[in-house]
Design brief:
Residues 472-483 have a biased composition (Polar residues). Residues 447-462 have a biased composition (Gly residues). The protein has 4 helices and 47 strands. By secondary structure, the chain is mainly beta. The strands form 10 sheets. A 10-stranded mixed beta sheet has the order 28-29-25-34-35-37-38-42-46-45. Strands 1, 3, 4, 6, 7, 10 and 11 form a 7-stranded mixed beta sheet that branches. A hairpin with a 2-residue loop joins β30 (399-407) and β31. The protein is flat.
């Protein structure tokens, strides 16, 4: 007895990308020679077997018949399906196995789709109509790939890969039938049965039935909504009748063949055909229709049989119909807009005297699409902290207060504590490290940047430590939090004025403005910073954009306002001290110990940015670091020629870059595994 032949799987290889590696495809499969293709066991009268190199064709004579033997039901097909057996003989005597389900399987007589000399493959060529006659009305083509192996279990070696195309012709001769092809139910055999819902109409076409809705639909209150179907008692069902085709006496329901007769409706079978029930509405408390939102579709495959009892039922016809239900929502009275909720973010805030932070109020409306009213801000203790119309809180003295946002009678709040908190150590902006020669200096293409060194390349020195650096002794910046929002001119100009005032007390005309967790800053914001600095008596100003986690600084970007004001677009200010995807990729392909800095900015910043980051350098040689810019979109990386890096007293690593995306910090030049 023949067993079910398992499908062959082709293994494919995939490439990583242009920068980090790839693989080679399998060699092209050769056509199986005709002399190694033959029929095996099964012979069907009237079915012709024709072969040539790499090609098999099953075609039909005008009259065909099936020998009265069991039709391979153990192959997993239906009992009425007939299979022809194809034997593909091995290419040489040293071949010992063939690939089945992705694994080499030994050639033997065990029922696994092999013989001692080759591989067996089974193809459906017939469909029984009665005890002998059969036919397939449709044509079909299969592509078969065969991989041959030498050796023994545990040590197989691929020898060759071959291909054969198998085609089954369409048959229209004596005894042919549409029983083997699933066709669409004609429109004239689809109708609504019993249940009528006013405002719902049934539209039918070939193989389609659609329940369409008017503007209003009503459910007759004196009818039971088919709760005996075992469905939700709140659902309203409409009954679709699929009338039987000629000569049909039974239909398959739930895997069983059921005789068509007058029976209880829940069986789904009547003397007229097959009944199917579809939920078209939800019933309200007073038998009104509450509606169903969302279109839905069902596909019914129907198997019709002929015969008088279960002992002689024979497949007559396969049909299909697609049933759809439109989307329906009952008309409702419009709601009066109202404020459902007001939320303030963050809900708690800790400031030092003189520090400012901007709060955000989110107003949720009912309905959601309604326009929200304006928000008013207030402080429960103006002496501790004040708040302006934009939600900017300024700490004035030690203590606590509650900042409230009010809209439409609803309130949200933030608890504010003001005190002399010990500040978190920040990256030092002004050290002047002595450059140490790199033990393995690398030439710069074109000679424009000089050789790389500990403090940078090309003798350009350290941008923060040069003599005459206007920021070198400052560190006089003021701090403000703008968590999760774009930096606004109103916030930054206020902080700039305070920063310049503090700098002037130290006889300096250059100042730093520290902003925490802002999303981005536009050229207009930097332009307004310069104006505010000049108005306050200063000359130069930098933006120090901090990214914090748990109140601790993880990264800081140093941005010169004069340069940024001339950019063509916004600068993204966020930075993270890891990139999980890039780390996984580089760990896979390179030997080096690496750290990663992921900027929110995609592509170029448009200017040189100095960054200070808190990364773990314990297992890395600081004097041998290399910096690479990695673009995940193109999966490519390039060496940053002059990073001007150093580590400050607080452990922050400083470097310069013009590109965003991800910076890979490597212990030496990248070395492939």
């Amino acid at each position: 007895m023949k067993k079910k032949m398992l499908a062959l799987l082709l293994a494919c290889s995939m490439a990583l990308g242009t920068a980090l590696g790839g693989g080679a495809a399998d060699a092209e499969a050769a056509a199986v020679p005709a002399d190694r293709l033959s029929q095996h066991n099964t012979i069907v009268t009237g079915v012709k077997f024709e072969k040539e190199a790499g090609k098999i064709t099953y075609s039909y004579e005008d009259s065909i018949s099936w020998p009265t033997q069991t039709p391979n039901t153990d192959l997993g097909g239906v009992k009425s399906t007939i299979y022809a057996d194809l034997l593909i003989t091995r290419p040489s005597d040293d071949v010992t196995a063939v690939e089945i389900d992705g694994e080499p399987v030994a050639l033997d007589d065990s029922a696994n789709g092999t013989t001692p000399t080759g591989m067996l493959k089974y193809f459906p060529v017939g469909q029984t109509i009665d005890s002998q006659n059969y036919a397939y009305a449709e044509g079909k083509t299969w592509e078969v790939t065969v991989k041959w192996f030498t050796g023994s279990s545990g040590g197989y070696t691929l020898k060759s890969t071959e291909m054969v195309t198998v085609t089954r012709a369409a048959y229209s001769g004596e005894g042919s039938t549409d029983a083997s092809v699933r066709t669409k139910v004609p429109a004239d055999r689809l109708s609504q049965y019993n249940t009528t819902v006013e405002g719902i109409t049934l539209q039918t076409g070939e193989g389609t039935a659609r329940f369409a809705y008017g503007e209003e639909i009503t459910w007759p209150g004196d009818q039971d909504p088919n709760v005996d179907l075992g469905a939700d008692a709140d659902s309203v069902y409409v009954d679709l009748l699929i009338e039987k085709p000629q000569d049909a006496t039974a239909v398959k329901i739930g895997g069983e063949i059921v005789k068509l007769e007058d029976a209880d409706p829940p069986t789904g079978a009547t003397s007229q055909g097959l009944l199917h029930y579809f939920p078209v509405a939800l019933r309200g408390s007073d038998n009104t229709v509450a509606g169903l939102t969302g279109e839905k579709s069902w596909t019914l495959d129907i198997d019709w049989y002929k015969g008088s009892s279960s002992s002689d039922f024979q497949l007559l016809k396969l049909e299909t119909v697609t049933v759809t239900r439109e989307s329906y929502t009952p008309p409702v009275e419009p709601e009066e807009p109202s404020v459902a909720e007001v939320k303030v973010s963050p809900v708690t805030l800790k400031l030092t005297i003189g520090e400012s932070a901007e709060l955000t109020a989110t107003v949720k409306m009912n309905p959601e699409e309604a326009e929200s009213p304006s928000v008013s801000w207030s402080s429960s203790d103006d002496a501790v902290a004040s708040v302006d119309d934009n939600g900017v809180v300024t700490a004035l003295k030690d203590g606590t207060t509650t900042i409230a946002a009010t809209a439409g009678g609803k309130h949200g709040s933030c608890a504010v504590a003001v005190g002399d908190n010990e500040p978190e150590p920040e990256p030092e902006p002004t050290p002047d490290p002595e450059p140490t020669p790199d033990p393995d200096p690398q030439p710069t293409p074109g000679g424009s940047s000089g050789s790389s060194s500990h403090g940078g390349g090309g003798g350009s020195g350290n941008v923060w430590g040069n003599t005459g650096n206007p920021y070198a002794a400052s560190n006089s910046g003021t701090s403000s939090s703008v968590a999760g929002k774009a930096l606004t001119s109103s916030t930054v100009t206020s902080q700039t004025s305070k920063a310049v005032a503090a700098a002037l007390k130290n006889d300096q005309k250059s100042a730093d403005v520290v902003i925490k967790n802002a999303l981005s800053a536009s050229p207009k914001v930097f332009e307004d910073m310069l104006k505010a600095a000049k108005k306050a008596g200063g000359e130069q100003v930098r933006l120090l954009a901090d990214s914090t986690v748990g109140g601790k600084i993880q990264a800081r970007l140093y941005i010169d306002a004069a340069q940024a004001a001339n950019l063509g677009g916004d600068i993204k200010l966020g930075a993270k001290t890891d990139d999980a995807k890039a780390r996984t990729l580089f760990d896979k392909y390179f030997r080096n110990e690496c750290q990663f800095v992921k900027f929110s900015q995609a592509g170029s910043f448009g200017m040189e940015i100095q960054a200070a980051v808190r990364v773990n350098l314990e297992s890395m040689k600081v004097e041998n670091l290399r910096f690479y810019s990695y673009d995940p979109a193109s999966n490519s990386y390039s060496l940053i020629d002059n990073p001007q890096y150093f580590v400050d007293a607080n452990g922050f690593l400083h470097f310069a870059t013009q590109k965003g995306d991800t910076v890979v910090i490597s212990d030496g030049l990248l070395s492939r595994k």
